[in-house]
Amino acid sequence: MKAYNVAILGATGLVGQEFIKVLQQRRFPVKELKLLASGRSSGRKMAFNGREVEVSEAGPTSFRGIDVALFSSGAEASLYLAPIAVKAGAVVIDNSSAWRMDSEVPLVVPEVNADDCRLHRGIIANPNCSTIQMVVALNPLHRVNRIKRVIVDTYQSVSGAGQAAIEELSAQTRLVQDGRNAIPHVFPHQIAFNLVPEIDVFLDNAYTKEEMKMVHETHKIMHAPEIAVSATCVRVPVFISHSEAVHVEFEEPMSAEKAREILAEAPGVRILDDPTVSLYPMAWEAAGTDDVFVGRVRQDHSHPNGLAMWIVADNVRKGAALNAVQIAEVMAARGWL
Ligand SMILES: NC(=O)c1ccc[n+]([C@@H]2O[C@H](COP(=O)([O-])OP(=O)(O)OC[C@H]3O[C@@H](n4cnc5c(N)ncnc54)[C@H](OP(=O)(O)O)[C@@H]3O)[C@@H](O)[C@H]2O)c1
Question: Is residue 129 flagged as an active site residue?
Fold first, then answer.
């Protein structure tokens, strides 16, 4: 089997560490692994396949000889380094928002639009974590009965904002329990024992950027610009996994039984749905797993063609590292690397 020289940019971050885990767990054929981060992490050692790999500072010469560059460094570093990596001959799979809406960059969730990888010109973008889990569940339904409108409310874990956000929730929880003030740094308000309906910046239309990402990215991935999408994105004091309450309006009526039947066959989806025994997806149980979990599937009593459901997935795995490695697997399997 052909093996590849792989670089991880942002290796010391939350997604970067998950990249290392996922590459090992899925036995991605890695010839050499290069770990890159900022100068702050230079010299740090991280374990991969039973040996230690030293982290080096990313720079203009970092991508020589690299076949696949997995980026998880944030948009600014990606805008600067992705073109350099492409010029050096690497295919970049980028987790930041930098390239997602670029018309020359495929935005890919392998269960939905793996074929789009073929159109790449060096960069493939990984979608926003909230969008990924939603389209994995909605696309198979849309193929059977066209979706007209989606209303989604998210309950997003702090890990979606990186390592520093996890530390902020831990520290604030202790402070608040001790009756002390919790001063926010990562989030605009205290996140411990609270919900914050603001993820990313506010835009002129009064939605946040995170909410509009769910609109635009859903259109691009599903090749369905006609679907009306409205989102409210909320940060919740959960460490890992995003949860979503999704209300879908179809062109024709769709029963909950039919939807469950379709989803049972859908790649990447696992149904957990039995109200008689309080079985439904939950953030705690989805953490550390690969599937997109769907439950609480029910007819929306307020609309004849409506369905409601609850979708949960690990945002650091399927929402980031796993999805990107799956893209690399598609590229390798189809001889596009
Ligand atoms: N967390 C999620 O669930 C999730 C989901 C989807 C997408 N994403 C996206 O993935 C990216 C990484 O997220 P994260 O949660 O892993 O963040 P994180 O925990 O804050 O990690 C950021 C990583 O980027 C590195 N970095 C920062 N600036 C850099 C620079 N100028 N040059 C090279 N490396 C640099 C950091 O290195 P140092 O350690 O040296 O500072 C660190 O390794 C972000 O764009 C985020 O939006 C995250």
Answer: yes
